[in-house]
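## retry 2 of 3
previous attempt timed out at serialization; input unchanged, resubmitting
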Amino acid sequence: MLVLAIGLFLTKDALTKWWIVSEFREQGMDVQIGQLEIGFPLNSTIAANKITVFNLPEYGGSSMLKIDDLFIDCDFSELMNFRRKLKPHFRQIRIRIEEFNLVETNKGSRNLISLPDAVAKTTAQLALDDSPLYFTVGNLNFSWNNLRFTAISANGSTTKSNDMTVNIENHITQDVKTLKDLRPLFTKIAKPIGTALAAKLFGRFFD
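## retry succeeded, writing output
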């Protein structure tokens, strides 16, 4: 039993990587992960690099998201709070996005559900800015290099492709609890890419 426990611990990173890839493939997507390290004890940190998430076939199947560096520090047991309708708390998240490829079909559907649209309550309940997130973050360190916008036709061929430099380096946001806390970051992203694309990324913030 001890030998088995040691073996599972030594292979925990590879097993976790296999599980993540399997979950994506069940959704019809694919993902590649260069390196994944789970801290000890298991409820401590997760570090990964060279992550590439690929689009669904209806969005061309090309790369959707490339992450050079990802670091998460949280109590793993907090993630189980969803079942108890409590909010998990991430002590720190550091993410460096190399490129995000926003794809839009000729019918207007996109490969992204904007964060405001995903978490906002109805306007009859509370204002958009005060919409609470399903999680909280003590310290968010965010970097993003490039954005690509791709428009595709009904037959899947590319009709338009624009590459833009976002160039956000180590933007720090602390005590993230509501969408309002992320507005300065959204606004900073909107400056180099324009409000039209910002509206596609962040929905009602820029409509």
